[in-house]
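Task 17 of the worksheet. Students: predict the tertiary structure of the chain below and write it out as structure tokens. Keep your answer in the requested format; marks are given for formatting as well as content.
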Amino acid sequence: MDGVAGQHGWRWILIIEGLPTVVLGIAIWFLLADDPEHARYLTPEEKALMIVRRERQTGGTASAEYFTWVDAKKALRDWKVWAFATGQFGADTMLYGYSTFLPTIISDLGDWTAAEIQALTIPCYCLGAVTYLIVARISDSQQKRGLYAVMFGAISVIGYGLLISSTPSGVHYFGCFLVAMGLYVVVGLPLAWLPSNAPRYGKRTTASGTQLTIGNSSGIMAPFLYKTVEGPRYVKGHSVTLAMVGYASVLYGFLWWYHARINKKRKAGEEDWKIEGKSAEEVAELGDESPLFVYTI
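Model answer:
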């Protein structure tokens, strides 16, 4: 499409890829319901089921389903939200940088055309996608996020170690597969982990927004890590990304330990003093601060 309507081919790529996002973003405003009661696409039975599931969740009170500035401020004052946000920044550095260096690594393997190079990136992305779907399924069934974020973060770190090493191009290509295995797991699981530990809507939306905003800002930095003149090895880019993913993995390991420790204390009744003299409704209004709330680890 290079030259169509006077536009370069790369411009058409951005237009075609971005147009569905823009259209869908506008459509969702009108099509996606704010709550089960107003969801036209759900049957009465499905609406009732969602309402029951919401009410059974600790902290899932009627007021918890609406945004309040009190809850938003609690999110901004919660150190865990900022920890998740900085961890997301580290993981997203890998996400934004991966597509930059992968074609260069492959081109160094042989005399390929541009189309063949792009085709050879597909196995890496497929492995990443399949790994993510499998791990997400297992993680959700076990309600364990930290374990898999740390495990697959370590795999990606090993992959970057191979990319930095002075080894044949085939080894570097293998390293790309290891990076891909952890790529979507380390980026995606924390996006489900943080909101699952914030039952009140105002805190949950503020926490997720903060996490996504800070995490996606790594996209500003990532292109500068992989300058064309430093290819095909990109030692600096790989080293910085390795450090960022390593940081995110260690941080998620700490959050895993911290949440498990709080759950243990709550189970032992060490936080019951927080609800002394309170009614059941007042206890439920505490959200994740309630000693009855069990954190996802």
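Marker's comment: The mean pLDDT is 91. The first helix runs from residue 9 to 31.
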